[in-house]
């Protein structure tokens, strides 16, 4: 019995020795053989941390449904495309890496909806910047954006947006007040002095008319017909175009969303109109061309130069990337908003903040100056009273070609 007991004690001793041996060997291994693997494991846990950058929410309130939906989507496409590019690596401000999250809301082109959306974006998403692509919505948000402390990135050529004196409004496209003089002179010299007015019935169309008509008359022209078209309701333009043409105009002033504007032009040509067209800058030649089956019906029309013809350093690069991403040619809405978001991010970096709209606005010029060549889609030269300065692009169509007509 003693032998058995001694044997059990001996075996227990061996087991204790083995346990002690394995306990001393385990911590010794990482310090020697597994030192490099241990560092590699640390590196792989840190790598995602750089990807998990802090997020800056960028707001968008525009028409994503209804008659102006295509216009709203064009505007939004430039914002999202720029955000996707920026997010590939993120951007650094004061040693912190950030990425962008675009929060989009549909306002159906209704100013009251824009105001509601803007408040929601600020309260729920803390957006320091909100893109708004129509003048009615911009005016609605200018009432409170200083108090709520956010920048309105305003895509409208309405010059009255600057007259409000709102220091947190950044106006993106050229003001349409630059167009009436060259447009009117060209049309009078080529076609004559009698003008029929048929723009969109929106406030934007009314403001455009109020700017164009005095210029036309000061240059010796006559307005023989004044009307407007509500593109949200009207789909048959025969009657109103017939009434306008009954006054024997030399030139028609038309405009609004591109597709229905093209149908107004088509109706006029089918009714025998041989004169010229002044086309407000909302309608784009490149979007009307597919509706009209070419540029023949647009012969003698004046409007804005298609952005896909841009000779700016990043113009053709942008065109290629945009077509690959969206499967269509870009318009000014996409291009200018794309370039604007790049400017705003550069301004954040120059300001040293992603959350202080006042400091960001103070550094917009620094943002422009810091743009890389492939981000310069069109010639952006500076900032004047809260609006970007761009190279002028008033254009006429002659024999299917675009001809610059700036004074």
TrEMBL record:
Upper lineage: Bacteria, Bacillati, Bacillota, Bacilli, Bacillales
Any single Pfam family the record assigns to this protein: Peripla_BP_6
Family in the record: Belongs to the leucine-binding protein family.
CDD domains in alphabetical order: PBP1_ABC_ligand_binding-like (cd06336)
Species, as recorded: Litchfieldia luteola
Keyword Transmembrane: no
Superkingdom as given in the UniProt entry: Bacteria
Listed InterPro entries: BCAA_transport, Leu-bd, Peripla_BP_I
Signal peptide extent: 1-21
Keywords: Signal
Residue ranges of every copy of the Leucine-binding protein domain listed in the record: 56-365
Region (Disordered): 25-49
Protein name (record): ABC transporter substrate-binding protein
UniProt biased composition (Basic and acidic residues): 36-49
PROSITE patterns, per the entry: PROKAR_LIPOPROTEIN
């Amino acid at each position: 019995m003693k032998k058995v007991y001694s044997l059990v004690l001996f075996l227990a001793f061996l087991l204790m020795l083995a346990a002690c041996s394995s306990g001393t060997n385990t911590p010794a291994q990482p310090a020697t053989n597994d030192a490099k693997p241990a560092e590699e494991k640390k590196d792989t846990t840190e790598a995602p941390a750089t990807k998990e950058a802090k997020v800056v929410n960028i707001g968008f309130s525009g028409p994503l449904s209804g008659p102006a939906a295509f216009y709203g989507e064009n505007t939004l496409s430039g914002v999202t495309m720029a955000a996707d590019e920026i997010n590939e690596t993120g951007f650094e401000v004061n040693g912190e890496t950030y990425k962008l999250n675009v929060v989009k809301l549909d306002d159906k082109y209704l100013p009251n909806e824009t105001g509601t959306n803007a408040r929601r974006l600020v309260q729920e998403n803390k957006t320091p910047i909100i893109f708004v692509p129509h003048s009615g919505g911009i005016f609605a948000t200018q009432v409170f954006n200083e108090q709520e402390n956010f920048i309105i990135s305003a895509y409208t050529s309405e010059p009255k947006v600057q007259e409000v004196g709102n220091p947190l409004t950044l106006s993106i496209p050229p003001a349409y007040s630059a167009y009436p003089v060259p447009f009117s002179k060209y049309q009078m010299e080529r076609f004559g002095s009698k003008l029929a007015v048929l723009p969109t019935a929106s406030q934007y169309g009314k403001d455009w008319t109020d700017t164009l008509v005095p210029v036309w008359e000061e240059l010796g022209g006559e307005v023989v017909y004044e009307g407007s078209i509500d593109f949200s309701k009207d789909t048959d333009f025969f009657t109103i175009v017939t009434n306008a043409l009954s006054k024997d105009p030399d030139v028609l002033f038309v405009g609004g969303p591109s597709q229905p504007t093209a149908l107004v032009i088509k109706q006029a040509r089918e009714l025998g109109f041989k004169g010229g067209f002044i086309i407000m800058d909302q309608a784009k030649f490149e979007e009307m061309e597919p509706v009209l089956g070419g540029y023949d019906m647009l012969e003698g029309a004046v409007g804005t130069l298609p952005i896909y013809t841009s000779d700016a350093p990043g113009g053709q690069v942008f065109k290629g990337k945009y077509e690959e991403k969206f499967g269509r040619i870009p318009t000014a809405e996409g291009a200018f908003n794309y370039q604007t978001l790049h400017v705003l991010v550069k301004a954040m970096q120059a300001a040293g903040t992603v959350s202080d709209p006042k400091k960001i606005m103070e550094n917009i010029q620094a943002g422009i100056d810091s743009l890389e060549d492939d981000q310069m889609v069109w010639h952006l030269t500076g900032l004047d009273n809260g609006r970007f300065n761009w190279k002028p692009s008033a254009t006429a169509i002659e024999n299917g070609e675009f001809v610059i007509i700036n004074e």
